[in-house]
Write a structure and sequence with these properties.
Helices cover about 70% and strands about 5% of the residues. By secondary structure, it is mostly helical. The protein folds into 3 domains: about 45 residues; about 80 residues, Receptor-associated Protein, CATH 1.20.81; about 260 residues, no CATH class. The chain is flat. The N and C termini lie far apart (about 80 Å).
Length: about 400
């Protein structure tokens, strides 16, 4: 879509300038007319960056998590400072970092200017704004506390992103170390060790069993390694497709929560996401049953979502939330205890947020502990494999030396 740089005159004779992505000049005139401005001059934007870069090389339909958090925080700050919604949205449009973001924010602003609420405008972009996001904004608008609601929503998005970033960043080093270990072993077996084979065969030496195993492994990897990687990729693809089915996905998610080492971490992450989202919804005045219905969609684990659905049935019957949730055995005891305390003191939202802080801290500590264990384990395993290869080669060389004497 082409971009036009324009000069327009608004109400009171105030001049304004900007850049807008529209189909043609007539569309620009109509867009400015809806804003109460009259176009004075328009020309194609020659200062525009390369179009291929401005529309994102890896094109995506929705907002990135960081973009959504930044937009929410900026909007909350501007509304909290007393600016009206239209002016705040205009600022976001004018300061958008790329054309995709400008188009999305411009469409939201146009919808609001047509007389719709912000929640309605956001609901037209489900790939960017989830049902949770739209529901909170709707509740904030209905209660006349949109800026406070957006502030809490921005905190929710930032905490979720920080939690995901903590796990991802912590696993980068062990992953790189493991790849380096595998690469080193493969290089020794397929490139270094075969160079000694002619030396052994020319001298008629009988190779030790360990050396024969290493040479055989290198030969198999060199001949079938790429084919094995292709088969592995196909297997993983088929497995991912299979896990999209409800039954297998539910069984896999249950297994994931009960694994000896990683299950505890998975439960802490699930509990942190659940309590953070639930607490934010309740603090903003949303009824418990409605909040549980929305939270279920954000769980990220079908087994946890199923447990939450069963707990919601108990909550509708007056049994509360904590007791039915404890029956599943999937959530940490701390979660159940704090939720029960919140129900007893009529502060379920606040206690859920307190539980989220505890679970997020537990997750960070668990990830650090896991990395501190994985890193030396991978290093020791890599050293052991390389030592075994070198030892087998040295053993063969010593046998060759005995033949020479």
């Amino acid at each position: 879509m082409p971009a036009f740089r324009y000069t327009a005159i608004g109400a009171g004779g105030k001049l304004s300038e900007g850049v807008l992505d529209v189909a043609d000049e007539m569309a620009l005139v109509e867009h400015l007319r809806r804003q109460g401005s009259i176009l004075m001059r328009a020309e194609p934007d020659g200062r525009r960056r390369l179009a291929a870069l401005d529309i994102d090389i890896f094109r995506r339909d929705g907002l990135r998590p960081q973009e959504a958090a930044d937009i929410t925080r900026e909007l909350a700050v501007m509304l909290g400072a007393g600016q009206d919604l239209d002016r705040a949205l205009r600022f976001l449009v004018e300061t958008a970092s790329n054309a995709r973001l400008r188009r999305l924010l411009g469409d939201i602003r146009d919808t609001v200017r047509d007389g719709n609420t912000l929640a309605v405008a956001l609901s037209k972009h489900p790939r960017s704004f989830s049902r949770l996001y739209v529901g909170l904004v709707r509740a904030g608008e209905a209660g006349g506390a949109l800026s406070q609601t957006l502030e809490r929503l921005a905190t929710l998005l930032e905490r979720e992103r920080a939690l995901a970033s903590t796990i991802t960043s912590a696993l980068i080093y062990p992953s790189v170390l493991m790849l380096a270990a595998i690469g080193s072993v493969v290089l020794l077996l397929t490139d270094v060790l075969p160079q000694f084979v002619p030396l052994f065969s020319d001298n008629g030496a009988t190779l030790p069993f360990s050396t024969q195993m290493m040479i055989g492994a290198g030969s198999i990897i060199g001949r079938w390694g790429l084919a094995a990687l292709g088969v592995l990729a196909l297997v993983l693809f088929a497995l991912s497709r299979w896990l999209r089915q409800p039954g297998p996905r539910l069984a896999f998610d249950r297994l994931r929560l009960r694994l000896p080492l990683f299950g505890g971490l998975a439960r802490e992450v699930m509990a942190a996401r659940f309590t953070r989202t639930l607490g934010t919804l309740l603090i903003n005045g949303m009824p418990l049953i409605t909040a549980l219905d929305i939270v279920r969609e954000t769980m990220g684990n079908t087994a946890g979502a199923e447990a939450l659905e069963s707990a919601a049935v108990g909550a509708r019957g007056g049994a509360g939330l904590a007791r039915p949730l404890s029956v599943s055995g999937l959530f940490p005891e701390r979660t159940i205890h704090l939720l029960q305390l919140g129900e007893e003191t009529a502060q379920l939202g606040a206690m859920a947020l307190r539980a989220a802080e505890i679970h997020e801290e537990k997750t960070r500590l668990a990830v650090q502990r896991m990395v501190s264990l994985l890193t030396p384990a991978i290093t020791i395993a890599m050293g052991g494999m390389i030592a075994a290869i070198v030892a087998s080669l040295v053993q063969a060389m010593l046998g060759l030396n005995d033949l020479a004497h």
